[in-house]
Design goal:
Belongs to the HMG-CoA lyase family. Its EC number is 4.1.3.4. This is hydroxymethylglutaryl-CoA lyase. The protein is of the alpha/beta class and 336 residues long. Helices cover 41% and strands 13% of the residues. It has a 5-stranded parallel beta sheet. Strands 2-1-8-9 form a 4-stranded mixed beta sheet. Strand 5, helix 9 (195-208) and strand 6 (212-217) form a beta-alpha-beta unit. The longest helix has 17 residues, at 156-172.
Length: 336
């Protein structure tokens, strides 16, 4: 698996954090035959759901050409990723960057063993996605009533009803559905979000048929403490194997939050555990140390997933160069 990059340790070298999370410290020698690999404090394998082509690009003000999006996905497909979120079947009125969803979906090269989910807000979006060739979809809810109304124009309860329609139709067509819970660690309108509310929404999504629930720190206000409390609440309602995290780096907390989630979930997992993480590309901070750390974590997560770069250059570096050329503005990596 390798050790945590030095840039990550530097960003997380607060004394209290090192005491609570000793696995961030000095590298532990590889386990001997028969010795449990959990002694390293890290999972044996990290499953990455790459959401960069959708979540990483959707907020770019300058439209990224369709052929660039397709090329990004094709490059990602060659790395060994098991899941790449391709696009979003939402109205182009609300998300202009995703207006070419049909063209992107139909233009990518599909590799055996790779899933290509797409985001679908409602039944219409679901049917449009299936018509374009989608074989897996995601629905996105929120743990905040205010955010739900602002983001998808309906209450949490109304959104659940819409998702149930999507999941029911998907089940009839043997289409897997993944669920998102936004504002799991804070809301721009309501502030703090109770862990119990996140757990409630997560349970309802899982109970209706979502095989995996991605818990999102949508505005990046989470801390290791709030991440731990939230996960502990959710773990009481849905299986550990169905939990993923989706962290934004708005206030420089993504690294600490992701590593905290690894530890919290790992403590409750059996040997051979899999940690689930969404990985994304987007604009980020200007701090050079944080940029280095984010790139290091990106490469570390990929390496921990037994992935390989094609043509000697990672898709992360490639798309950052492409977007920077289009927008003439610097971009960096954030963890989603």
């Amino acid at each position: 698996m390798g050790t945590v990059p030095s840039a990550l340790k530097h960003c997380l070298s607060y004394q209290h954090l090192l005491k609570e999370q000793p696995w961030i410290g000095e590298p532990v020698p590889p386990p001997q035959p028969g010795q449990e690999s959990q002694t390293s404090g890290l999972p044996e394998y990290i499953k990455i759901v790459e959401v960069g082509p959708r979540d990483g690009l959707q907020n770019e003000k300058v439209i990224v050409p369709t052929d660039i999006k397709i090329e990004l996905i094709n490059r990602l497909s060659k790395t060994g990723l098991s899941a790449i979120e391709v696009t979003s079947f939402v109205s182009s009125k609300w998300v202009p960057q995703m207006a070419d969803h049909k063209e992107v979906m139909r233009g990518i090269e599909r590799h055996p063993g790779v899933r290509y989910p797409v985001l679908t807000p409602n039944l219409q979006g679901f049917h449009n996605a299936i018509a374009a060739g989608a074989t897996e979809v995601s629905v996105f809810g929120a743990a905040s009533e205010s955010f739900s109304k602002m983001n998808i124009n309906c209450s949490i309860e109304e959104s659940i009803e819409k998702f149930e329609e999507v999941v029911k139709s998907a089940r009839n067509m043997n289409i897997p559905v993944r669920g998102y819970v936004s504002c799991a660690l804070g809301c721009p309108y309501e502030g703090n979000i109770l862990p119990a509310k996140v757990a409630e929404v997560s349970k309802r999504l899982y109970s209706m048929g979502c095989y995996e629930i991605s818990l999102g720190d949508t505005i990046g206000v989470g801390t290791p403490g709030s991440m731990k409390r939230m996960l502990e609440a959710v773990m009481k309602e849905i299986p550990l194997s169905a939990i993923a995290v989706h962290c934004h780096d708005t206030y420089g907390q993504a690294l600490a939050n992701i590593l905290t989630a690894i530890q919290v979930l790992l403590q409750c997992m059996s040997e051979g555990a899999v940690f689930l993480a969404d990985l994304n590309l987007s604009r980020s901070c200007q701090n050079s140390l944080m940029k280095q750390a984010l790139h290091s974590l990106s490469d570390w997560l990929y390496a921990s997933s037994s992935l390989a770069w094609s043509e000697g250059k990672s898709p992360v570096s490639w798309i950052l160069t492409q977007v920077q050329d289009i927008t003439s503005q610097p971009v960096s990596v954030v963890m989603h």
